[in-house]
Amino acid sequence: MTRNSFITDERISHEGFLATFIRRVREGQLGSLPVILALVVIVIVFQSANSKFISPANLVNLSTTVAYIAILALGINLILLLGEIDLSLAQLGGLAASLLGVLVVRQGVPPVMALIIMLLLGLVVGAIQGWFFAVVGIPAFVVTLAGLLAYTGLTLTTLGTQKNLSMADTFAFEFSSFYFPALWAYAFGAIAVIGFGGGIVYSKMRRHSEGLDAPSWTSVFVRIAVLTIIVFGFLILVNQDFGLAMPFFLMLVIAIVIDLVLRKTRYGRSIYAVGGKVEAARRAGIRVTWVRISVFMAAGVLAALFGFIKTGVTTNAGSTLVGTQDLLDAIAAAVIGGTSLFGGRGTAWAAVLGALVVGAIKNGLSLIGFNSDAQQIITAVVLLAAVVIDALSRRGQRYVGRG
Amino acid sequence: MTSETPEPGPAASRPPGDGSEPVLEMRGINKRFGAVQALTDIHLTVGRGEVVGLVGDNGAGKSTLIKVIAGVHTADEGELIMNGTAQKFSSPKDAQKAGVATVFQDLALCENLDVVANLFLGHEKTRGAVLDEVAMEAKSWELLRSLSAKIPSVRVPIAALSGGQRQTVAIARSLLGEPSLVMLDEPTAALGVAQTAEVLNLIERLKERDLGVLLVSHNMADVQAVADRVHVLRLGKDVGDFAGDERTDVLVAAITGASDNVVTQRATRRGERR
Question: Which of A218, A302, B144, B153 ranks highest by number of CB atoms within 10 Å?
């Protein structure tokens, strides 16, 4: 701090933790704070309306629902980081799931082979849509709207005359209804906490040795403690019921991988750059076309995975597996989590936190006996609030540092 | 005796007391776009630690000239010599390799990324596959400090910085490639008084680093404040080199060609007659 202080602007005051926090709120540099507050409010409201909300059984149930919303939201989130939108992802997941069902149930293809084919479908379709957008130059909105229509039709074609297809007793169902033994779950939790804690302690020490501003030990320990409480609190609760569900575990692994790629690699940095200002990215030597196509490919694979998990959880691989509601939930999740619709701002955890909010609203409302109409209206209100916060924070940011 | 008389033209205007070869020397540059002769027989030198202002009216060829130096366009004829070596740039990459750094008017910064990310965009430091944020941040501070730049924090997004601070980041970014010539295209356009002064200070820092600086600007006051020499272009041709502190009306006359028209010719004749 002292080493660098003479170079910083004298107009910038050195302020305490609370003052920094208040200033950030005013300037709109909130990060994931609004969504965490929203989550806390949702939990308090539903828990006081129905004490079953935070029961182990309901948490397990919630975790599997959140898992597939979040996997799709992670895909949409990547596209949003580019400043684009993909309307086709949910239907693509539905198409992939129906293909999987037909291959496994009707054609008797080995499960692993069918799964690989399904993921490849996501990859190839993503590449084609990305190509139309990045190379041909058609707006992503139009390309993926065409995709949305095409995949709905293709799903019906794939299913043939029989539009219903049950995945009960298939490996997809077994995978999605697999629960880790309690000890395994705790081990995963410990690995996550140690990995995160080790990472921030190492980073703090290195920053300190280089003479850079480093977070205080207090803040390091507070962050580790908060994560420990959340992770083990959740695990202790779900372990009283079935335990840690495979879909939720898979979703967390994907989120961690995407988060690390976005924050720690040149590729991740180039996604933010393309989403922020294409021209600047191009001049910096970033291969914009490749970044765009590859992000669409990744989103396609995530869509297929979404289809795989949803078909396993609901045991349905028919034409009713996905609808526009899934797409809207996922877009809402990413935006509620704090990813900007204007590109270049957001994190992988935005999708997960947003999916938690969307999932918790659906789950909580149905617990207290509201129908799906009310669920949609309340999700809409939360989404609108999130977009307003996004717009305000952009405006707030523009005024910082000016005169 | 005659052999010792300095040749008229660019060679005569080399900075005094500096025997070393110039950073950039252009001889007889021609550039044509279809029927338009954009540059005709341009001679321009920029010495080590010298700030050369490049001025001219709209359409005078300033942009074309800096694009030729930056490797965006290739000259049809003429020699371009960087640090004593004749160069033929066929792409901006070639120019960068030869030591030309260009800071364009529209900055090319990503507003959503922080200062460190922008400084290293496209050539991030990594340890294995992982970004080395610590090394990049340390280098950023070192660089900004050497420029005496005022940036509140290198971890704020560019969107939160003022115009002058953004210009500082853009210039600092160009220095990471260890250039020998820095070209600034309208660096003070749209800046306030204090911010303009900050950028002018920064240009003096570049000069102290022994870099050649080519400053393109419409603003005479800014050019006169920092330039050692002013090179005037008009309609794609050299008008000539002027001292950095040349009077504004003389420069304006050279830029607009006002010193070469019926009115001035008549005025001159009348003056002679008296």
Answer: A302
Of A233, A244, A231, nearest in space to A185 by CA? A244
Strand partners, A166: A316
Is the pLDDT reported for residue A330 higher than 70? yes
Per the CB < 8 Å rule, is A345 touching B123? no
Which tokens is B138 given?
Answer: 């340390």
Please answer whether residues A306 and A68 qualify as being in contact, where contact means their C-beta atoms are separated by less than 8 angstroms. yes
Closest by Cα among B150, B151, B152, B122 to B136: B122
Q: Which two tokens stand for residue A278?
A: 């294409």
Residue B28 host element (H or E): strand B24-33
Nearest CA to B58 out of B216, B223, B226, B191 is that of: B216
Q: How many pairs of residues across A and B have Cβ atoms under 8 Å apart?
A: 109
**Cβ within 8 Å of residue A16, ≥6 positions away:** none
Cβ neighbours of B177 in A, within 8 Å: none
Name the residue among A271, A296, A295 with its Cα closest to residue A147.
Answer: A296
Each residue of A46-73: pLDDT tens digit? 999 988 898 999 999 999 999 999 999 9
Which helix or strand (DSSP H or E) is residue B226 part of?
helix B220-226
Gap from B111 CA to chain A (nearest CA, Å): 6
SS3 A240: coil
Reply yes or no on whether the pLDDT at A269 is more than 50.
yes
pTM score of the predicted model = 0.85
Q: Check if the beta carbon of residue A163 is closer than 8 Å to that of residue A326.
A: no
Instruction: For B157, name the nearest residue in chain A, comparing CA atoms only.
Output: A397
Q: Check: CB of residue A249 under 8 Å from CB of residue A188.
A: yes
Amino acid at A195: G
Residues B123-159: tens digit of each pLDDT: 899 998 899 999 999 999 988 888 888 888 888 888 8
Distance CA A189, CA A8 (A): 41
Burial class (CB in 10 A: 0-12, 13-18, 19+), B206: buried
Distance separating alpha carbons of residues B57 and B232, to the nearest angstrom: 9
3-state DSSP assignment of residue A285? coil
Higher pLDDT, A98 or B96: A98
Nearest residue on chain A to B109, judged by CA atoms? Answer: A280
Question: Could you tell me which of A83, A91, A247 has the C-alpha nearest to residue A176?
Answer: A247
Residue in B102, B110, B116 to test binding to A, most A beta-carbons within 10 Å? B110
Question: How many angstroms from the chain centroid is the CA of residue B40?
Answer: 20
Residue A61, burial from CB neighbour count under 10 angstroms (0-12, 13-18, 19+): middle
Task: Provide Rg for chain B, Cα atoms.
Answer: 20
Block residue for tokens 């021209």: A279
- Enumerate the residues of chain B whose CB falls inside 8 A of the CB of residue A402: 162
Of A210, A269, A285, the CB nearest to B131: A269
Per the CB < 8 A criterion, the answer to whether B135 and B125 are in contact is yes
Q: Which of B97, B121, B126, B162 to mutate to test the interface with A (most CBs of A within 10 A)?
A: B121
